[in-house]
Amino acid sequence: MADRTQKMKEDYEYCASACDKILIFAGTSISHEDASKLLEATYRPPVSRGDLDNAIRQGYRLIGIIDGIFYSQAAVAHREIIRAMQEGATVVGGCSMGALRASELDVHGMIGVGKVYEWYRDGIIEDDDEVAVTTNPDTFKPVSSPMVNIRETLKAALDSDLISYTECKHLIEIAKNTHYTERSYMGITKEAYRGGIISQESSEALLEFCIDHECDVKREDALMVLEKIKMISRG
User: Fold this and answer.
1) Distance of CA 65 to the CA centre of its chain
2) Entry pTM
């Protein structure tokens, strides 16, 4: 009986301690190392089905969803996030899977932040593949480029007079028609050159621009999620 009482006490102390902590699901749009410089929290890999239920059982009540699994495993379910909020958790989402789920569940109390969340919420973008990337299975770092970044980077190239409006439109179409696992600036510029959309010289200049001046919308939004959670944690 004494052993059982001690075990219950330890469980309670663990949950109480966890309640004071912040849990963030990330690793693709921003590394745990970089994120931890901004916000002290528990960091776990991109969220998948069942992770939020486990987090609630462990006592977490302030949860940030930045990155998540899309196709290789079951994605975090809407009802799982709703359950977490019904248990008293504050769930903040943005950037990638967090933005997608927040746009669908903000009416239920999930907090959405960032450009990508707003684009999904307002119907400017709709497809999951807009934020999906291929990742290194060991590090979760991206090995392909997300459509939301590509589109904004090509628009920046247009604003810099590196490409014309028509060329920009065709380049975005090439990117959108490329499977998310194979999207890259090199692949897009090469395909545009092969298709006669831009010259070889323009293709090389554009690739250099995209690499050096990428509009990393997802990282910017990931930082906004962390800032929002920091603000909430401070009351």
Assistant:
1) 8
2) 0.89
Taking the C-alpha atoms of residue 170 and residue 164, their distance in angstroms, rounded to an integer, is: 10
Looking at the structure, do residues 63 and 110 belong to the same domain, yes or no?
yes
Continuous segment of H or E residues that includes residue 25 = strand 23-25
Strand 90-93 and strand 42-44: the pairing is unpaired
The amino acid sitting at 110 is M
The answer to whether residues 147 and 130 touch, using CB atoms and an 8 Å cutoff, is yes
Helices 185-194, 165-177: crossing angle, 10 deg rounding: 120
Q: What order do you get walking across the sheet with 42-44 strand by strand?
A: 42-44, 23-25, 62-65, 90-93, 111-112
CA distance 133 to 142: 6
Task: Output the pLDDT for position 20.
Answer: 56
Q: How far apart are the first and last CA of the chain?
A: 40
Cα–Cα distances in angstroms (integers) from residue 19 to residues 22, 58, 202, 232, in the given order: 8, 8, 54, 14
Q: How do residues 138-194 score in pLDDT, each as one tens digit?
A: 889 999 999 999 999 999 999 999 999 999 999 999 999 999 999 999 999 999 999
pLDDT at 205: 97
Q: Judge if 9 and 82 occupy the same domain.
A: yes
Structural domains in the chain (count): 2
Same domain, 74 and 124: yes
CA–CA dist 2, 131 (Å, integer): 52
Q: Which residues of the chain have pLDDT under 50?
A: 1-19
The Cα 235–Cα 230 span in angstroms is 9
What pLDDT was estimated at residue 32? 97
Q: Which two tokens stand for residue 5?
A: 């009482």
